[in-house]
Amino acid sequence: MRSLLQQLLAVGPELAAFILTSPLLNARGAHAITQVPSPNLDLSSLGRVALAGDFDSISLYNYEGQSEASFNTNGSQSLLTQYPDGSFQSLATADASIMTMCPFVQKDGSLAGVVIGGNFTSLGGVEAQSIALWNPNTTQVTALPGLSGKVSTVYCDASSGTVYVGGSFMAGNSTNAMAWTTGWTNLPFAGFNGPVTSITKNAAGNIVFGGDFDGLGNTTTPQNPDGQVINIGSGNITAQGSATNSDPHSIICNTNSGTDWLLQDNTAGYWQGNFSYGFNPTKLRLYNAQSGGRGTKTFYYEDLNSGGILNLNYLDANGENQSCSSSCPLANNASAQDFHFVPPVGMNAFRINIVQWYGSGGGLSGIELFQDDIYSFAVNDYNEPKCDDVSAGSASTATPSNLWQRVNNNGNSSSDYLSASLQSPDQVSPSTAVVFTPNIQQSGNYSITVYTPGCLQDSSCSTRGLVNVTGTMTSNTPPVTTTLYQSNNYDKYDQVYYGYVDVDTDNFKPSVTLVPQAGQSVPLTVVAQRVRFELITTTGGLNGLFEYNPNQAVVSTDFSTSKINAAGASLSSGAMVKAVQTIGSVLYVAGNFSGNGISNVMSVGNNATALAHGGLNAAVQALYRNGTMLYMGGNFTNTADNSVTGLSNVASYDTSSNSWIALGGGVNGPVTSLVPLAINITRGNLVECLTVSGSFTSVNQVDRNASFSTQGFAVWVPSQNNWLHNIPTSTVAISGQLTTMTNVTGSSPLYAGQISASGLYSGAVELVGSGRSSLETLGLTLLPSSATNGSSSASRRRAIHAEESYNGVYNGLYYAKSGLNITIVGGHFRAKASNGSTVENLLFINNTAGQEYTGVTGLDSDSVFATFDTYDTTLFAGGEVAGTIDGRGIKGLIAYNLSTAEYASTQPAALTGDTVIVNAIATQPNAATVYVGGNFDAAGSLPCATLCYYDASTSQWNSPGTGLGGVVASMVWSSTTTLVIAGNLTINGAAAALVTYDSKKQTFSQYSSATTPGTIEVLAPANSKYNEFWAAGTASNGSNYLAKLSNNVWTGVSLAAGTTIRGLQVMALTSDHGNTNLVASNQALMMTGNIVVPNYGNSSAALFNGTTFTPFILTGRQDGSQGTLGQLFVSNPQNLMSNTKKYLALGLVVLIGLAISLGLLMLIVIAGILMERHRRRREGYVPMPMDKASNLARIPPESLLGGLGEKSAPPKL
């Protein structure tokens, strides 16, 4: 086998040089956070704006890289950092867990990168077995090849520029422990004979290892070497130069029985084998041909993988050791002759080249290969043949045999393997199994490794899951079981057992059984490849702890000179150390151990010392230090003497006062990791917290804080001495799991796990501010979705989606008339009322005087409210609603008096039909008629299917006319007498999706002659004239669509697969975008639901500018899955279609223009009169006297009028 340095160099000298020497001076990180452009929404005229949905957390899409991706269930985790708003950015995703990391600072102080370890096979898309180097400056991942197994802990020692690595792995000449400096370095003690789980540096400058080991050790050669026969008969056997009728297969499993394979006369040739699995041969056994004096005289063995000629050792005729390579002699007799490989080299193809021969030509009578490695293959053809007296035979059995299919590795894995595609739940059971039975010839301590082929090579990643691996190792101890993920991208090696294994006997054979874990969904792919047993030797003398002085080249096996080693030895045998931590000169050790009054945790100064009250009463799995405070997580419930309550699986210990402190009441299950995290508990208030991850389902009650459900994750706030969930002012929600973190100088902290953090708003939220908006709580508190009442909740349906289920808040309404200020939200949920009672599905937030939360009674728990409208102070609420009000059954619709906060005295008669659903309510403008549409046959005794109207003044149902059928999904009044109706409709039997209703004529007609893309489930006006519409629904081919109707033409918009639209709304903008044919430059279309944005992924709300989709709002649920949004509602709905530039209507513009013109004319006339009077005065004009007598005296009348009767003379020419 090549050394690890050789393996490193095999990746190429350039890459090796990069790995070993690249410094990252003052790395600030290319994971610099980039804020996305503002959506520029103009909310100024809308009043209050809210979004309803099914979510427990919500955030705006503010930064590149933010996503709504749900948590993986295949065990994969990510490298993470935080955005300024507290949400997390994924930097690189692993295909399994990330368990440990540390910044690798070299001797010169430069940062070489962050070392990341776990049990992954790929990180950030780069194949990397268990360990890799991440560059914070470029975000590049570089594999550190050479380990096979799992890395559990790393410690970066900046003073020496060394990374100490521990886990369950093989590397070079070391087991379970290794060091990296400028490449892999074997530690002088060759590792440990058991897993290493923790590494730290103590006050003396020595490296302390903790784990499940009892000595230094490594793999060893069996007492009887070369004991495993390699099944060369399963390969593709060929030859060159064979004599006529001479078959190269004939000498396999043939120990000189007289059948020879011969070459042609006087012709060189070769015998070759190519195999679908790899092996590491230690011995070659050949039998020479014995036909007519013919036989092989000299040969050489060629490794076809590397093309090299291998060195062989053998005994000559005098019994002396000899070596050969290109010309190895073979005696001319019938005896078996053995050749040992020096050193052994792994391969899957070889050739025996015959160079010289005896007699007329060469040949062989038999061939065998042996190895020390003990394997059992799932493909039984690869297991040991049983054709001689040497092999007892390894084997495997796959059941049922017809379910398991052999998969060709195509060079992507170490061997072919078996795969079972499980298509029915009954196949996910122990009856689907592969049993591996190795050939164990020597009892002893073994490391047992299960090999799992990667899922990329057979494209099965989406259907891979969990398997249970059970080992029966001895005849008198119970089996051991562990669970493994099989979702690894590349080949993975899991150590499933370390310990004693009995030798094969007639009555007992060790075995390993692989079965799918029960309860998984189908389709499920299960794979089985091989199991390896490695014999381990040990020095003994240790017990879970070892102190290593890196300045000593030789490690003494006199462990008593170390106080730390002696402390481990003072414990009962079998100590399992999970964590070690140094505070000052004292080492704190935690795990699963006892002895001398010590229970599961101790301090080591001059000797091993129990903590207060003897320690804890069960195992400790995790340890975190914050100053002088130690936080511990595990399986314990109290101190060893049961004297401190509240220490349920998590606790803290003050090392300065030697006292235990409870974290509330603890949690109800095991804790596996404790990771610090800074959190904005309230906006702008960054607080250091501690995340607690494990296998628990609730946080226990303490004092006045009730218990609360959780999915294995909780956050402790030390400054508040309380859990984050219990802090009333908290506005952040965090879910998932964190496994580890590290601080990197000049960069943000790095975390590992699966986690999401966003605003703690449940079910409904307000959108505040124009431009770059923000989110604020509506104040309602919904119970977790897992607590939603009734098992039928998963089957509740909304609108015309017969297959769609919905939980959470679906819609809402603001009411601010008649001196009231009430917010109404409805859907399918449970919430807390102000009096502490539980409200179901319909909630009133009354802000008229203070703030009060109330609900209604008498309705079925599985009701769903989907639509609202009002007439005067009466609320009409509809959906899939049923129940009893004042002894009278209701269905589909209720009426509620907002002013008296009680049901209306007269309720609308119940709607009837096979499936009664009200999808839309629209009160007619300037009238008391409330139109109700959906899926029903009649209203009380009135036969008015699909659409009825309720006269609020007479409390009577009325029929709007005849001819309309089907299911109404949405309605909007385009004028005081015209109602636009959308859905899956018919008019007089003819299919229709968009219909116009004339309330004066009581007639229905097709809205447009254009053919709709399909049934309409969501409708929104596209302009203020209500002659253009956006619609979404289901196309005739079953796909979802989005389209706009304009100028009697439907124009479709391509949607990504998986998109579900529940709401549409045209929104005004504060800043124009480029003008498009579909969306005006000062508008954007908001879509809510589950919107798959191309080249991004899922978002709960997205904006469309006519050409491009942009994520807008991201949501999540408590269980880590994606949330969804229902409807947007506002307090000024009449302004939803107003233009941001606030242009006046054309008629009003004409009237104003006319008024201005008349005003200007009047001003001109008045100005002219004033100017004329001024001119006359200036020129001496005076008013004519008004004394009539005086005037008559001055000019007698006859002077003026006397000649009127006289004839005038003709004019003279």
TrEMBL record:
- Would you say which domain of life the source belongs to? Eukaryota
Q: Where is the Rax2-like third domain?
A: 375-536
Q: Name one GO cellular component term.
A: plasma membrane of growing cell tip
Keywords (A to Z) from UniProt: Membrane, Transmembrane, Transmembrane helix
Q: Which InterPro entries match?
A: Gal_Oxase/kelch_b-propeller, Rax2-like_C, Rax2-like_second, Rax2-like_third
Q: Where is the Rax2-like C-terminal domain?
A: 893-1139
What are the residue boundaries of the Rax2-like second domain, all occurrences included? 226-364
Q: Report TM segments.
A: 1143-1170
Name the SUPFAM superfamilies for this protein. Answer: Galactose oxidase, central domain
Cross-referenced PANTHER family: BUD SITE SELECTION PROTEIN RAX2
**This chain belongs to which protein, by name?**
Cellular morphogenesis protein
* Gene source species: Recurvomyces mirabilis
